[in-house]
């Protein structure tokens, strides 16, 4: 006597392929905007491509990993890389702290102050980086700056010292970046059921404990987004550094990888070496992002 096996339900192929078709337009756009430039950047990094090759005076030569060998053997690369990592880490932490604090503040103030704070943050976010950096330079000007006049000091050049210059540029970067974190986390906090927060308040939880024990676990997926975005933005900061330090500061003391790549490519005419720096930056950001996502997955957080 034979028994019939239960029928195995299989998803129709149409259902499986539907998401792929929906993703196709975005994939085409991203491929055009990102994949092709990345391919060209990688190709340029393995070529001897200088001003002579640009003008057609000499033929372009394939040099393999020679640009990378030269880059990794340069002591300045490691110095600039260290400065870039330190600067980006400080900016990311400060941006998250300011954005999260103001997001919580938005939930605790009345409608009119909330509207004013949101408009002020959006204005800071909407200001072009060049314009915002120039305004901050006027505020901290050595002779006519409002800050020096308010402090009652004369002749103080805020951009002369390396660490003071990095701190000032970092403040501008945070000023430009915190609105994204603030609005994103505020939207996430507003999605938390009020009953949960009210229960925590009845149990006597402080504002800090409520934020750390209730809000942060719920906001973990959003925090993953803002952390990754902040790392990418702050690691490749160019405009604020270039404008405020006038190309990298005195004797290049405030160089970051992005500014240094620009100098090598367009000031020194070493386009292949500049492209190699860009590829190294891309690899570093990719590795950091993957490690961060892997850490979140290991902790059991849904993404």
Automatic annotation (TrEMBL):
One Pfam family per UniProt: BPD_transp_1
Organism for this UniProt entry: Actinoplanes auranticolor
Annotated localization: Cell membrane
Gene Ontology cellular-component annotations: plasma membrane
Higher taxonomy: Bacteria, Bacillati, Actinomycetota, Actinomycetes, Micromonosporales
Top-level taxon of the source organism: Bacteria
Keywords in alphabetical order: Cell membrane, Membrane, Sugar transport, Transmembrane, Transmembrane helix, Transport
Protein name: Sugar transporter
GO biological process, one term: transmembrane transport
Family per record: Belongs to the binding-protein-dependent transport system permease family.
């Amino acid at each position: 006597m034979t028994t019939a096996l239960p029928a195995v339900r299989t998803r129709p192929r149409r259902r499986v392929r539907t998401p792929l078709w929906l993703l196709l337009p975005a994939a085409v756009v991203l491929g055009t905007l990102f994949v092709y430039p990345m391919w060209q950047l990688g190709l340029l990094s393995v070529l001897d491509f200088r001003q002579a090759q640009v003008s057609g005076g000499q033929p372009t030569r394939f040099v393999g990993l020679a640009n990378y060998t030269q880059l990794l053997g340069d002591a300045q690369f490691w110095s600039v890389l260290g400065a870039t990592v330190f600067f980006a880490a400080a900016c990311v932490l400060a941006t998250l702290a300011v954005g999260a604090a103001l997001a919580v503040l938005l939930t605790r103030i009345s409608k009119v102050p909330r509207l004013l704070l949101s408009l002020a943050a959006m204005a800071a976010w909407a200001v072009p980086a060049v314009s915002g950096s120039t305004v901050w330079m006027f505020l901290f000007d050595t002779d006519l700056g409002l800050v020096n006049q308010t402090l009652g000091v004369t002749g103080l050049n805020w951009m002369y010292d390396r660490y003071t210059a990095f701190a000032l540029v970092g403040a501008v970067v945070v000023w430009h970046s915190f609105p994204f974190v603030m609005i994103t986390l505020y939207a996430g906090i507003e999605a938390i059921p009020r009953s949960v927060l009210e229960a925590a308040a009845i149990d006597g939880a402080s504002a800090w404990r409520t934020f750390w024990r209730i809000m942060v676990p719920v906001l973990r997926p959003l925090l993953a987004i803002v952390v990754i975005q902040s790392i990418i933005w702050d690691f490749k900061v160019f405009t604020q550094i270039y404008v405020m330090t006038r190309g990298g500061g005195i004797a290049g003391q405030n160089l970051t990888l992005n500014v240094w790549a620009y100098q090598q490519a367009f000031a020194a005419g070493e386009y292949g070496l500049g492209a190699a720096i860009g590829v190294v930056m891309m690899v570093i950001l990719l590795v950091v992002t993957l490690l961060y996502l892997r850490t979140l997955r290991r902790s059991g957080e849904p993404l």
